[in-house]
Amino acid sequence: MFGRPVRPVRPVRPLRLLRPRPRRRTTLLAVGALTAGLLLSVPQPASAANLVKNPGFETAGTGGDGMPYCWEKSGWGDNDFTFSTVGGAHSGSKAMKVELTRRTEGDRKALITESAECAPVVGVGKQYDLGLWYKSTTPDASLTLFRHDTTAGWQYWTDLKTLPISAGWSEATVRTPEVPAGTDRISWGVSVYGTGSATTDDYTMDQVADPIPDPVCTGTAEQCANGRWDVLPTQNPVRSMHSVVLNNGKVLLIAGSGNSEEMFEAGTFTSAVYNPVTGTYKQIPTPKDMFCAGHVQLDDGRVLVMSGNKGYPSADGTIGYQGYKDSYVFDPVTETYTKTNDMNDGHWYPSATILGNGDVISFGGLKEDSTGSVTAERWSDAENKWLPLWQVNQTWSYWGLYPTMVLMQDGRLFYTGSHTFGNNIPGTGSAIYDYDANTTTQVPGLRQKDERDQSASVLLPPAQDQKVLTLGGGNIDSNPDANRLTDIIDLKAADPAYVAGPPLPQGTVDLGNGKIPQTGAQGKMYVSAVLLPDGKVLETGGALHNRANPVYESSLYDPATNAFDPVAADPQARGYHSSAFLLPDGRVMATGDNPGNGTWNHNVSVYTPPYLLKGARPAITSVIDNEWTYGDTQRITVDRPIARAELIRPAAVTHSSDPNQRFVDLPLSVDGNNVDLNVTSNPNLAPPGWYMLFAVDANGVPSVAKWVHLQGPSSLAAASGEAASGHVHSFADSLEGKVEQPGRKRASAAVSPTVAGCDRHYGSANICVPTVFPAEVRKTTAARCTWLKSNDYGPLKINGKDDPLRLDRNGDGVACGKGDARKR
């Protein structure tokens, strides 16, 4: 009846993800009668402003369980507890006390009765200010909401506020997120999930006033509707394919050799730091070829860069790319790289996901010998090093290249199905990996799983909703037209599965003879997806085929309406090795493009979303403390009213992949221009590190971000001194997919040396002649040579004696040379 049970995750241990024990459904309690003596017999209605009936527990109930009118018991798990109405109230004669004297697992909570008579009616899209007075002897108490879905019934909604210990009466206030579609009522109360008690009284619930009218737009009509792209006057000096937004607002752009064999042979490896405020670049000495490495921000703001390119493919194509074991950290303060200890294996194109305790876990990529790495790696935040192999759980599975692994709110990892190069993993193409149990459970529903190469996946705003959107993709091996598919999964569901989302909008595509409208099922791969502070997602960039045929299209996806709204398109080609990311001022920066002919687009584009063309922006005038811990209430001041605030984790993006990108809602308590922000107590929702804090007004206009550092959780520390886990609700708790245990230990997985979709018999290593040409190119030498010419490939030397694509029909050692195109 109450949706998912509330339960904390287990304490962090050196080699465990934050993860609860096996889950159970919530059940109502049938407990003996509580303290008698409730005097009033006529139900008290809610006051004109207060939507809570019987807010002070003064009216007796009639259910026989001792609970006041419109209040009921809830909870689960192995614990000893009491519910009682007590004297010494904040006002009136009664208060509600919930106490746990012994707890192994679970919680207890007094909730507004989930009925049409008692549960307050709410409006979709509205927000509500909730308040109560409380006393508490435990740090493990939280204000918890449930919502009634008109189709699915009652279900857990969110935790809004952790209540600090208070010996005397203290007031707690919080503002709900916007009420989701399909919701007609809510229920709420205080959960106690640790030993101790919480006594509450005088509940209030008021609807927030409707938003102010839209202001007059400051741009043209077209810009007001669709935003504006500007190509910056200064070019990016390096061939960067990795973009990391640093905690000082600058951007680290990593190139390594930049996919240039000539630069690799010369030992010329480059990075640059871009300053968005001044528009200037500073080139950084780079110790190793970090081309196609992995990267993630550590909790102290440094950037961990793992592996990279040890060697390019051989000229005859018999040896592929090779990954090295080296690893470095980049310090934003000194702007220098420092070597760490080595990883256990080489990983060219590895994943990198930060965990709730600050550790980093990594999968996939290519080893030193070009085979696929089956070694999982774990960076220990506490020890500041990569752990030895024997300390890391292993499945001995090959996850592919840049597999997108998203941290779930209970500490498990969701492999979304987005990856780079070729086919997906065996099975359904997406899975939930449980590090503690070391098991992988297949998740169904991802359509055309083997055509999601260089698709993008993003944890939708807010992270508390636990929904993931996967969009676009293709296949480098078979080289079909990239698709328009989007698929959405709700990880709160008991047995989550992808469902079809709306198709990507179509734009124009350059097939070599100018831009033409896309037709049929044409979509795009190499797509970028960026979380915006108004709660929408910008998808932009892409191409129709393997390193060819750029697509010019951008749109905004709104999770609330599950719809795309086409907006202005980036005028620059943004295909392979491009990236787009959010800047602290609310704009989006886009860089790169590396087509198959080996050239590089050094132009940089910046998108100004429509929300920045709606007049004056709110401003955060002060942040009382930029060092935050889990479960905190943090005060900021603003220059005018705001409707929401959130933390957005800064980008660390490459190859359409940024698994750590997330938008965490901060429920508000508003007192004029003073706003108290309620920080999640669950580090799996917001892993430790630096975040951009945005304040957003009722029109969706964001402030410029302030930087805050989330660490802890000191307020939730366990008696043993270990960091305690966050307060989460069970979900994805009855998975029905195929469960796989760890396989047999092995050294690697076989991977074709043509994994990048390039035939190395032609040109240098940074030239990519596709192993399979697009379907519309007829299977003749003339057609293929015409296609190569239209995509700006120059003369191509034949490497060795083989000519598998039949491009050197006259045998002179030059592909598509004089006379070749006239031969079949």
UniProtKB/TrEMBL annotation:
GO biological process: carbohydrate metabolic process
Coiled-coil region(s): none
Annotated Glyoxal oxidase N-terminal domain residues: 271-598
Residue ranges constituting the Galactose oxidase-like Early set domain according to the UniProt record: 617-709
Basic and acidic residues bias spans: 799-811
Region feature (Disordered): 799-824
Regions that span the bilayer: none
Keyword Magnesium on entry: no
Pfam families, A to Z: Glyoxal_oxid_N, GO-like_E_set
Signal peptide bounds: 1-48
InterPro entries: Gal_Oxase/kelch_b-propeller, Gal_Oxidase_central_sf, Glyoxal_oxidase_N, GO-like_E_set, Ig-like_fold, Ig_E-set
Record keywords, A-Z: Signal
Protein name per Swiss-Prot or TrEMBL: Uncharacterized protein
Originating organism: Streptomyces aurantiacus
